[in-house]
Amino acid sequence: MWAYTEKPQNPMIEDTCQGDPNAEVAPQTAVGLPEPALAAEAISRVLQPLARLMIDHGLQLPSLVDLLKKALVDEAAGAYGLADKGSSDTRISLLTGVHRKDVRRLRSAPEAPAGRTPMVPMAASVVARWISEPRFLNADQSARALARTPRRGLPGEPDFTMLVGEVSRDVGARAVLDELVRLGVVELREDGFVVLKTHGFVPNEGRSESFHFLASNVAEHLAAAVHNLAPDRVGPPKLEQSAFSHDLSATQVEQLQQLARRLWAKSLQQFLQTATVAEQRSEGQAGPKYRVRFGVYFNDTQQDAPVAETQVSSEPRKTRRKPKP
Question: Quick one: which of 106, 103, 142 has its CA closest to 265?
Fold first, then answer.
């Protein structure tokens, strides 16, 4: 773990990389042994919010145990299989501790049908292009109000149908607009123009969308940290950092949260503009393709009360006995 601080009370930075977080990192191989005790300690902390999620939504231990077994079996079979041979049930059982009977059951079980996938990824991609492509921006870099269709706007001016068409030809502009309106991301004015209500894709999402973001964001974040701690890691560590401060009042926490949102909005636009160019340059290039996710989070938690300076004496109390009459 890398940490930097000038004074004990100053904000600090933590990550799962080694060395200067701003330095260029050369490809390297992480050499080390597995650390089951340290991994157990880390997992114990990760499981605390997971336990709250389970209790809040009625997911009990037997269901989670089966989910964990399946995740272990799938990961062992996919990422730890032998070249050209895959992995036998026995090998997977040895790697994971899952009984061979359960390994066989989970590997032979048919894949569960995928649930209804919300249109969130498509809608998010449309908003991302809207706030990053200069043609859809005002002079102050804010998102332009777009005519819903070409005939409602001025000749040559970009419109919402054009925006959606540049992202995908498979989904109609009206369907995307309806989804964005439903999520509270855009407003359709009476004059036929579509207005982005936020600085990015920040929907008033329902439960389905909320769980979609939880699965995508937390899984990718955790994957980056796990990659950095892999004993046989090859290549440079991935960016995985956070800054923290403590002993703050509620007012100061709120001010820091607003600052974090402003910083994210500025970084998001710059990142998306660069990512748009990167996607265009990657078109037609041979070789494997990759996806990236760049995120941010802000959380505040009430600190434990400080231990009182005056300690209660641990010496046994002396009892006076009354003299016998």
Answer: 142
Q: How far apart are CA 131 and CA 275, in angstroms?
A: 12
Q: What percent of the chain has pLDDT over 70?
A: 78
In angstroms, the CA 125 to CA 157 distance is 21
- Asked if residue 103 lies in contact with residue 89, where contact means CB atoms within 8 angstroms, the answer is yes
| C-alpha span between 292 and 184 (Å, rounded) | 26
User: Measuring CA to CA, which residue among 194, 196, 207 is closest to residue 120?
Assistant: 207
Q: How far is CA 7 from CA 12, 242, 245, 301, in A?
A: 9, 17, 12, 22
Q: Do residues 300 and 246 lie in contact, with contact meaning Cβ atoms separated by under 8 Å?
A: no
- Return the structure tokens found at 314: 């641990």
The structure's pTM equals 0.68
Average predicted confidence (pLDDT) for the chain: 82
Return the sign of the alpha-carbon dihedral for residues 26, 32, 97, 222: negative
User: Helix (H, G, I), strand (E, B), or coil: what is residue 36?
Assistant: helix
